[in-house]
Amino acid sequence: MRKATIAQMPKVSCAPPVSMSKKAFMINAGATCQQKRMSATLTRSMIHSQVRKRIIS
Fold it and tell me: How many CA atoms lie within 13 A of 29 on its CB side?
C-alpha cells in the first residue's frame, strides 16, 4: 500500500493545471528569446567597438 501512494504522489505534484503550464511555457519562451536577442546585440556591439579601435589606432 505504501509503495502505491508514493508512486501516485509525484504524478499529482508534477502535473500542474494546463493554464499554469501554458503560462510557464510562454514565460520560458520569452526568456530564451530575450537571451538570444541580448547575446546578438552584445556580439554586434563588441564588433563595433573593435572596428572603432582599429579606426582610431
Answer: 6
